[in-house]
């Protein structure tokens, strides 16, 4: 979808949704700026048409990095189905030897873990119906989020900040119970 933006008495664009999301994140476009796309009857404020900014800021209540959350949101939006919703995004604390931290995304259908390594990123997709349990652990070595699937495989992600870990577990428990 090509989206036009009217800002500072000028028309800008067209932009796709990912570009618009990046402009919002950078502050180059604001939620009250007017947008138009084919099928829309007239120009309207961005926040009346798209809830992108609200969705992203919703994921940053526990101290997540805004740029990283926007990047994870954009990537995940491109791989989920049209009826799937992102409920929460958590990411590891930055590590010195890693360019990007690992992340966990909770949707209404699954949990998506993206692990960063020397050879690039690897995405793991786990459907809620296949998750038997979720738990969090804290120790002197740090925090761990873990899941047990139907095949008795333990899936873990370490070093999530405690506030994100708690919220992630809360959402995961809720989603598990719904499935």
Structure characteristics:
179 residues; alpha+beta; Dna Ligase, domain 1; PH-domain like; 2 domains; four-stranded antiparallel sheet; 36% strand
Helix/strand/pairing category: alpha+beta
The H-and-E topology, N to C, reads as EEHEEHHHEEEEEEEH
Largest sheet: 4 strands, antiparallel
Shape: elongated
Task: Look up the CATH topology of the largest domain.
Answer: PH-domain like
Question: How many helix segments?
Answer: 5
Protein described:
Helices cover 28% and strands 36% of the residues. The protein has two domains: 3-50, 2-Layer Sandwich (Dna Ligase, domain 1), CATH 3.30.1490; 59-178, Pleckstrin-homology domain (PH domain)/Phosphotyrosine-binding domain (PTB) (PH-domain like, Roll). The strands form three sheets. Strands 2-1-3-4 form a four-stranded antiparallel sheet. Strands 5-6-7-8 form a four-stranded antiparallel sheet, sandwiched between helices. A three-stranded antiparallel sheet has the order 9-10-11, with helices on one face. It is built from five helices and eleven strands.
Task: Give a concise summary.
The chain has 179 residues and is α+β, with helices and mostly antiparallel strands. It has helices at residues 17-26, 46-49, 52-58, 66-77, 162-178; strands at 3-7, 10-15, 34-36, 44-45, 86-91, 103-107, 110-117, 120-127, 131-139, 142-149, 154-158.
Topology:
Layout: E1 3-7, E2 10-15, H1 17-26, E3 34-36, E4 44-45, H2 46-49, H3 52-58, H4 66-77, E5 86-91, E6 103-107, E7 110-117, E8 120-127, E9 131-139, E10 142-149, E11 154-158, H5 162-178
Antiparallel strand pairs: 1-2, 1-3, 3-4, 5-6, 6-7, 7-8, 9-10, 10-11
Helix pairs in contact: 1-4
């Amino acid at each position: 979808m090509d989206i036009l933006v009217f800002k500072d008495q000028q028309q800008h664009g067209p932009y796709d949704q990912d570009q618009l999301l990046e402009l919002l994140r950078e502050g180059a476009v604001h939620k009250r700026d007017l947008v138009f796309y084919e099928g829309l009857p007239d120009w309207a404020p961005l926040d009346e048409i798209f809830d992108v900014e609200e969705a992203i800021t919703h994921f940053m209540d526990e101290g997540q990095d805004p740029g990283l959350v926007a990047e994870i949101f954009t990537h995940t939006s491109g791989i989920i189905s049209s009826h799937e919703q992102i409920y929460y995004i958590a990411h590891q604390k930055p590590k010195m030897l890693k360019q990007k931290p690992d992340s966990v995304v909770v949707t209404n259908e699954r949990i998506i873990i993206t692990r960063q390594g020397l050879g690039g990123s690897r995405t793991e997709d786990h459907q809620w119906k296949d998750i038997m349990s979720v738990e969090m652990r804290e120790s002197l070595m740090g925090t761990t989020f873990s899941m047990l699937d139907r095949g008795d495989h333990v899936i873990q992600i370490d070093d999530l900040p405690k506030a994100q870990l708690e919220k992630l577990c809360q959402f995961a428990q809720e989603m598990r119970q719904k499935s």
